[in-house]
Known about the structure:
The chain has 21 helices and 17 strands. The chain is α/β, with parallel strands linked by helices and 546 residues long. The strands form 5 sheets. The protein has an 8-stranded parallel β-barrel with strand order 1-2-3-4-5-7-14-15, surrounded by 5 helices.
Amino acid sequence: MPSSRELHHEDESLGLCTAESLEEGFTMTPGVEKRRWSWKLLGALVAAPAVLLLGRHLGASSKAEVKADPLMATADWALSRDLTTDDNQKEDLIREAFSDPSFMWGCATSAYQVEGAWNEDGRTPSIWDKFTHAGRAFKGSNGDQACDYYHRWQEDLDRVAQYGFNTYRFSISWTRVFPMDDQKNMYPNEKGIQFYKNILHYLSKKGIRPLVTMFHWDLPEKLDWLDEEVVDYFVEYADFLLTTFQEVDWWSTFNEPWTFCTMGYALGLHAPGKQSKYLQYQCGHNVLRAHARVVDLFRRRHFRMGMKIGLVLNYDFPFPKDPENPHDVDAVQADAVKGVGWFADPVYKGDYPELLKESLGEHLPKFTEEEKNLLLQASNPIYNYYGLNTYSGRYVEAVKNHSTWTKQSFWKDGEPIGFPFIHAWLYKVPQEILLHLRWVNERYGPPSILITENGCSDPGNTEYEYTVNDWHRVGFFRDYLAKVAEARMEGIPVIGYTAWALIDNFEWADGYQRRFGITYNDFGNQKRTPKKSAEWFQGLLKRIQV
Ligand code: GBH
C-alpha cells in the first residue's frame, strides 16, 4: 500500500474530483488522470452553463464504451444529474461548513463484520455464528475470518490515522469480552478485554477519538431479543463495559434496532432468522427497555463531564410518489413516524407515537409509567446525542388514499429515484439526508446529531480495478456531504460524520459480494489497498485541517 507521503503527493489531484472522473468510474477508460486535469482547468475557466453542456456532451460520447454494463441505462441517467452541479462548488461548501476543528470525522467498522477469530482466545458463539454456520448468508459465507482484523487491527488503525480521520467508530463483540457459559453466566475474558484495550490505547496514541458501540447485532447465542430476560443480561454487559473501558467517552448502546428487529424477527433474513408479522415489536420493546436502563445506569454510576451516550437509528427518508397527491405527501410523514418514531419517540417523548399505537393495537407492547420516565432520561441533553445512519432514498405512496398504509418503491415512470447501487434498497439520493436531518431536528430537537453511518457499495461490478477506482463512491460521499453542509448552515447541530466503512467486510446476509469499504480488502490474502475514496477523504480532511 502507498506510504502516507505517496498518498499526500497524490492527493493534490484528488481533492478535486470532477464530474468527468466520476464518469470514469463507470467507463473505466484509460487516461483518467490527463483528462481529469484538463477538465479541472476548463472548469476553472468557463461558466457553469458551459460546464453543463460539456458534461452532457462527454456523457453522450462515452455511451458506446459502456454498453456492456447492464447498469448503463440507469448510470447514464444518474450521471446526467451529477453533471448538472459543480463538484468544486460542493467541496468548497463542505470545507466552509465543516471548518470547525471539533467536528468529528470518522470511518467505521463493526466487530462481527471485520474481526474474524470467531472461536479464538475464549470468545463464545453469537447468534450470527449460529446463523451463518447454518448456511443462512450468501453462498454459505460467514464471519469466521472476515478481515482477520483481530490480528491485523494495527495496520487498519494506521490507515484511519493516515486518511486523516479524528474519530473511529467500532463495536465490541459481547461474547469476546464477556462470554457466556452453558448455565448462561457471563464472565470477563481477559484476552478479549486486552484486544480492545490495545485498540483504545493505540487510538489514543494517534489522537483518534473512539466512538464505541455496545451492540452491533452479535448477541450471545443463548439469548433472544424476544425474552424479557435479555434486558437484564444487556444491562449487566453494559455495566461491565462502562466499568472496564473507562477510557471511552463516546458510547452508543444499539446499532439500528429497526434493522436487527425487522430483519431478524419479521423478514427472517438476519439472525436469528425468524419470520413473523409482529415479533419485531417485541424485540424493539426489549431493546428500548434495555437502552433506557443502561442510560440510567450510565447517569447514576459512570457519567463524567464530557461523556456521551446515544442510540443509533437508521432510516432512509422518503419522497411522495406523486407530490400532487396530498395522501402521498401525508404518507411521507406516516412512514417517518413508523420508521424513526418507533424508537426515537420513546427516547425523546417517553412513549411510542400515537400512529403506531393506533395501527398496531394489541400488537404493540406498552411501557409502564416507570419505564416511560426512565426513557425520557435517556435524552437528557447533558449526555445525549442522536446517532443517525442513512444510505438511500425511496418513494412512498398512500395505499387506497389511506396515508398511514404506505407502500415503498424505488422507481417511477421507468426511472430509479437515484443511481442504483443495490437494486433492492440502495439508491443515491443526496437530498434525503437533508430532509432526514431536518425532520429529526424538528421533531426531537436533539442536543446534537452524529451521522454514524453513510456510504455505498459497488454498483454490481466487483472487479479489482473498478472497485479500487471507486469514483462512484467519491461522488456519493461528496454529494451527501454537501447536503449535510447545507444542514449545518441551517443551524442543524450535526457534530460528526463517520463513513461506512473503513474496509470491505462481511456484509451480513449479503456475505462478501458487497463492498462498502474505502479500503479494498482481498479476502484471500487479506491484503488491503486504499481506494480512491480514502484518498479523497485524505485530501479533503487535509484541506479542512482536521
Ligand atoms: C447498515 O445497515 C449496517 O449498520 C451495517 O452493519 C451494514 O454493513 C451497512 O448498513 C451496509 O448495509 O435486503 O432488501 O431487505 C443499513 C440499513 C437496513 C439496509 C436493512 C439494508 C435491507 C434491505 N439496512 N436493509 S433488504
